[in-house]
Task: inverse folding
DNA sequence: CTATAACCGAGACGGTACGTCCGGTCTTACG
DNA sequence: CGTAAGACCGGACGTACCGTCTCGGTTATAG
């Protein structure tokens, strides 16, 4: 389907002497992202289509295709900011509480805002068009994993966590169940789940002398 | 999209007084399922469409719609048998080994056969058409969770596992990371992963006296 | 543009065992032709487009493309019947009166009905897409030339016209000025023009003894 | 389509006090006309579009729209000079030979140069956008008719042609068949046709005593 | 042992959305 | 300020599939 991964030029850096004429209409740009978010909220992922976005944003379809390669790319940009929100490195002093906090913040984002629907739709898209999966990981998965990795490394330094942990595995063990529930909807993403999951996983990663002391 | 969950009559049980006139052409039935599987393998999920299935199976589109409600329903049936394969209750005497074995068998299915692509595609479909998600869980998720639950319960009875475990949480902790990797493709589903994941999770579920004994 | 000349199957003869399944919806067929004629009348040739025809006829665009190769082909069929109307072989006994009559009938068709606009538009189309010109001649030019040729041949047999006339040239001399005025609109196509033109041309084709006798 | 008839200022006469700000880039002007002629020759009338002209002439589209109202206007200007070429008043002493000569010169222009394709395309355009037809007549039809009218009037003065001729009708009878063949392409525009047509028409316009004398 | 009705293949149908092309306007930076 | 470049809105293009709807033809019980 699309070979271009995401968007075709975010115009963030005008670069050095970029042929001058590259001006992008900010009105249109914003209107497209806004229309996309609205449609997602109102109609659900399946009913978001380029024509509807263009029509609602009062924009030519060509203007969308000029800057994005496909529907998924537009949605990715529309939710990039949203999805990055609240991904702050917590510092409660306890790994268990840090993890619990980032998960609870994430659950709020996924269940109380349109972002959850958007991300599920995007994951769906990556299955239908495999060329999108890497861009999706970069945009929406990587940074939360990175924050989590930092929390874990800090725990190891403090002696709170066992040395020699396979951090990637631990991170998969944290986020896997989250997305599993998010996508299959067999159980809710609530605060209780965050607490239970973290307190369950923490056992496997705590330093043994801590365990001994209990 | 579809309100019908799956297929409209698999003719498995002639039932009581089947109205007699229920003659379904087995040639067509099989050809459709075969064509579906072939297309999935050859072209990928995105290029499987009803018209392509009908054309390849040399079948009228109506014949597909007569027996299934949508593309997803056809694919579900086409892979129902495949996906159920090897979901046997193992009995090695050790929960760790039991879990490892079912995961490794599952990984083979997901990575060495078309079934993996099919199931990822179906999960995608459930995001676009939410009415499908329950049927998907019933067909492809439930039975493996059940087998896993049995393994865990047996471990508790044996005293190998801690009492009072939230089994649903544990099962999410096992399968979540699997689907997370399967869908996002950031790391492989191989035997090493199965072993590492299980040996990591087992710590949190083992009975404490076992731990003490170690 | 189009390689297909006109329409893709008028279904006039079901032929011998024509694969059976070729049924064409007469409701749609007629609705398309009707919508085309209406649009031509209401909006003029330049505003007739496939989308407008489809929309007005409450028909899918595909249904149009299934049976015709392009807009021009639809319009040709829509006006084929109209354009053939009144192309009867007159028989007044005099070549001059015969010619005058067919011209006056033609002028009525061209100036009092939508057919004139349609034919001018089609001639335009043949200039833009040269592959259409032959079909246009077959449909709209040939038969009137044939009738005219018959009138002239009859005149020769009767001794009314000179032998050895280049009939094709004479026919060009009759219809050329008609289309010239029709397309360039510098002078009207009225009964007076028909009479003047014919009485002017007749001199060049009359038998010399007739001339001498006058 | 266009309400402006032709071009918006050909800068032929600098006039009195040209407002100073009238500097038109001659490089662009010529490049546009050249590109137009090339495209017409290479791709045919149907593929000439403003974007293609602009791109080939390395000119902004705006520069085209600033000086011309539509594609047709550009083409008209591009061929105005060409089309006027060889429209000289001949003077062989014989109307028949004069007419034959101007027709043969015209045929060369129409069949050996791109001008023929251009003029046919322009006639097509006048059918789709009726507001163009008058400009077309002024530019490409009028002057040849005028020359022809002069030839005929000279013939009348000389006593070679009958008095009281409807000259407009005669001129239609001369050029009608030419454009008829040019547009419908059912027969060639060659020297033989010019001779035959003229010698056919001359009979109807010759003075009767000339006829009697023969 | 028909006959009759559901099934079947084929594919036409009304639609929706696709991604592209071009028309004509507007905006920016350069010369 | 005219220009090259090209983004912009809009509208039509021709295509791909959707899910529904006829067609005849085939087939396998029910009468």
Result:
């Amino acid at each position: 389907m699309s070979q271009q991964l995401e968007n075709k030029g975010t115009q963030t850096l005008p670069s050095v002497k970029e042929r001058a004429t590259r001006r992008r209409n900010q009105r249109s740009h914003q209107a497209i992202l806004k229309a996309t978010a609205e449609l997602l909220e109102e109609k659900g992922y399946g009913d978001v289509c380029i024509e509807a976005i263009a029509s609602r944003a009062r924009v030519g379809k060509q203007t969308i295709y000029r800057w994005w390669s496909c529907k998924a790319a537009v949605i990715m940009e529309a939710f990039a900011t949203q999805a990055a929100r609240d991904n702050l490195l917590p510092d409660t002093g306890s790994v268990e509480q840090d993890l619990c906090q980032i998960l609870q913040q994430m659950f709020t984002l996924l269940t109380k805002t349109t972002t959850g629907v958007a991300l599920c739709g995007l994951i769906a898209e990556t299955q239908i068009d495999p060329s999108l999966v890497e861009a999706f990981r970069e945009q929406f998965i990587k940074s939360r994993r990175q924050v989590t990795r930092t929390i874990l490394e800090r725990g190891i330094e403090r002696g709170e966590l066992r040395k020699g942990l396979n951090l990637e595995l631990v991170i998969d063990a944290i986020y896997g169940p989250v997305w599993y529930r998010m996508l299959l909807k067999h159980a809710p993403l609530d605060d209780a789940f965050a607490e239970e999951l973290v307190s369950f996983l923490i056992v496997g990663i705590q330093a043994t002398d801590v365990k001994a002391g209990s």
Remarks:
- The domain at 85-213 of chain C is CATH 1.10.357.10 (Tetracycline Repressor; domain 2).
